[in-house]
Known about the structure:
By secondary structure, the protein is α+β, with helices and mostly antiparallel strands. Among the domains are: 290-389, Aspartate Aminotransferase, domain 1 (Alpha-Beta Complex), CATH 3.90.1150; 412-485, Ornithine Decarboxylase, Chain A, domain 4 (Alpha-Beta Complex). Helix content is 37%, strand content 16%. It contains 16 helices and 20 strands. The strands form six sheets. The protein has a seven-stranded mixed beta sheet, sandwiched between helices. Helix 5 packs parallel to helix 6 (119-128). The structure holds pyridoxal-5'-phosphate. Pyridoxal-5'-phosphate (PLP) is lined by residues 92-94, 97, 118, 120, 170, 174, 198, 200, 226, 238. Pyridoxal-5'-phosphate binds at residues 92-94, 97, 118, 120, 170, 174, 198, 200, 226, 238.
Amino acid sequence: xxKLDQTKTPLFDALLEYYNNNTIxxxxxxxxxxxxxxxxxxxxxxxxxxxxDVTVFKQVDSLHKxxxxxxxxxxxAADAYNADYTFFSIHGTSGAIQAMIMSVVGQGxxxxxxxxxxxxxxxxxxxxxxxxxxMQPEIHEEVGVALNVTPETVRNTLEIHRDAKAVLIVxxxxxxxxxxxxxxxxxxxxxxxxxIVDEAHGPHLQFNKKLPISGMDAGADICAQSTHKxxxxxxxxxxxxxxxxxxxxxxxxxxxxxxxxxxPSYILLASLDAARMQLATEGEALLDxxxxxxxxxxDRINSIKxxxxxxxxxxxxxxxxxxxxxxxTITSKGLGLSxxxxxxxxxxxxxxxxxxxxxxxxxxxxxxxxxxxxxxxxISALEEISAEECCKIPRKINIIGxxxxxxxxxxxxxxxxxxxxxxxLVDSLGQISAEFLMAYPPGIPILCPGEIVTxxxxxYVQELKNANLYVQGTEDPEVVNIKVVSDLQISNMI
Length: 494
Ligand SMILES: Cc1ncc(COP(=O)(O)O)c(C=O)c1O
């Protein structure tokens, strides 16, 4: 159980006290509780929120050197998340991930990461100057999405790269797929290095045993979580959970302070305080209801002709150990519709906005903000779409075997800082890429910055284009040209 009184919201309470005292603000922000703001915006957002939009002073504490209510709020969060320390991030999980990476690796240090990471991981690798070693995730062939990496892949990679300084895992993926992170934590710790976790899509895992295990409970050393994505805080507000031991907490503190603004939004910070209180006091029951609602939706959607919403059967696949049922991935290929087309129809005709779409799927994220009424609207829209589209020819998923991960001669940071030139892809053999090339499906890079363009890759891109599949990532949307490093040329490596 918790050690602290989780019903408390010290930071939000400090702001309420400031509000109740009617304090006269001779401090920034210049809108002065909304009085200096145009009424068009102020009347819409309301004055309550503007009156707690304050700056750093003793009563409300400082994010960079917390000694008062922010310190207390972060300690409560650490208690709720089974961490030794929590750091609030108002730069989203992107900022927290960059800080997490910069806390454990520096210039030239090896870090083991899945190949299909979010761009914030790449940003962290560039900022730190680290040397990434990529692990290939498994693939769900039927719905065309990347799954997760297996413990065996982690062990094999560590065996080859015994000098690695950290391993990063995603728990769970955007589509709700977790790996056996507990086993991975044990493996990584055998090498006496930290396991760091991108838990952008898992800030709720801690609070319900029916969900996959959270990174902190599994023994990870740092977890970055998008509180705002899945639970009740505001956009951009995230948390970084830290366990002492393999991680230097003072280093984390310094890097978080280095990367974050000196003018953090107290509205965002207070929303983290309130979201943690809600999760710790009511999270289990709220998540029980969300899981039930997700099961209801999944069953109904799977009974509609042409749609498929994968569920627990995904646990049979390689790279899958846990599944978060609140992530509703709806595959529309049975209707001959792409995920992009389905998203457009739902948004424009039914005013239902999914979280995202890819070539074959849309993803709907469920949370305890959803109701049966809203879910029924989604289901009846899908039923109507199915009836209208049922005559089209179903799409076939083509996942063309991926090329080998090419040799890398520069770190992403070196490639990023090099002079570059844009040249035709077909003429780029042997050159060092300064860009990503992603194959859809399954959304895994075939080329990363600093890697050598091979004939296998150029042929593969042509093969994807011939099969009407998507290749993305280059500045040139048609992927005819690619940016390569112009002040270095490697030969004999094709
Ligand atoms: C896997 C993953 N990690 C990190 C992030 C970044 O999170 P945020 O948007 O909170 O910066 C995202 C965002 O979508 C993500 O999908």
